[in-house]
């Protein structure tokens, strides 16, 4: 079949390509249904216990991943640009099942790595080792080069190789509630950033930011990292995606960076980065290079939460699911968070040092503790007690780093 025949059959080339792309984006943004299911994704920094100050090589990462047993709960294991490992559960019926599944697979992963002399630290940023990409995938090469071309390579390298997240994936819910749910998950953003931060150091240094992971994300191109409006969310997502710059063009398994800022819509209209017109596969790949704090993938992918050690991440997962999906908690949380609705940078910079954010965090934890599932209520109450005592995960980790140094602290968190 000729190239022209392939294009004639491609959904983006059966009519006006911009209209076709917009229709596809609107149709696939969110899936209507009930709420309650939860998927969890936890990223972890890989640590060689024999050489904790050095980032493992790509060959070491490949060997370790190849030797992993199947995860008993069905989580997939993938590798991020800096050699971080990511555990991703399938969607499960509720947050209790999701936490149990991730906890089991996390334990299996830790045991397997320990047998090889390695560990993995689920914290928001690598406090010790300089940012450096080790994964040679052309996607990540192209990403690094594109960000260099638009003037944010330092933040990009830190984001790619030295940060880790806890992603909480929730059902989109009934279509009539999409706008309300997206607005609520954006409203929670500053509070959950202040609550979850475990990234007071990055690469051996600190700027004093409460969350250096968020500092890296906020240093990137806002055209692909900013929030999109909650009003008419599927249509807003389509506009956001079409206006975002093309980062890379993929042909087969090879991705090549795009210099400059060419919107995907411009490519559809014939002013693209390469001579050929874009296909639906190009659009799908483009969507994987967009990183808003909440990304619609049929469900809501919440991306703004730091990875946390095992003593805290189950509580944070329960807090998110409760405040989003429990109707009583969801109503109560609006008043608690409204005073800090747009305080995203303040939350990253100051966290709970800011009195309004501290108050909102404590209120949200109290709400979550009163409404969380019984199986996770104790974990949420313990997290609430931590903040009531004037501490936070970020301050606890900062204190440990200052006591023993970044390398030792990283090694401790990987045990």
Automatic annotation (TrEMBL):
This protein's UniProt keywords: ATP-binding, Ligase, Nucleotide-binding
Keyword tRNA-binding tagged: no
Gene3D superfamilies referenced in this protein's UniProt entry, alphabetically: 3.30.590.20
Catalysed reactions listed for this entry: L-cysteine + L-glutamate + ATP = gamma-L-glutamyl-L-cysteine + ADP + phosphate + H(+)
UniProt-listed Enzyme Commission number(s): 6.3.2.2
GO molecular function: glutamate-cysteine ligase activity
Ligase recorded as keyword: yes
Pathway(s): Amino-acid biosynthesis; ergothioneine biosynthesis
Entry-linked InterPro entries: EgtA_Actinobacteria, GCL_bact_plant, GCS2, Gln_synth/guanido_kin_cat_dom
Family: Belongs to the glutamate--cysteine ligase type 2 family. EgtA subfamily.
PANTHER family cross-referenced by the UniProt entry: GLUTAMATE--CYSTEINE LIGASE, CHLOROPLASTIC
Task performed by this protein: Catalyzes the synthesis of gamma-glutamylcysteine (gamma-GC). This compound is used as substrate for the biosynthesis of the low-molecular thiol compound ergothioneine.
Protein name: Glutamate--cysteine ligase EgtA
Annotated organism of origin: Luteipulveratus flavus
Gene: egtA
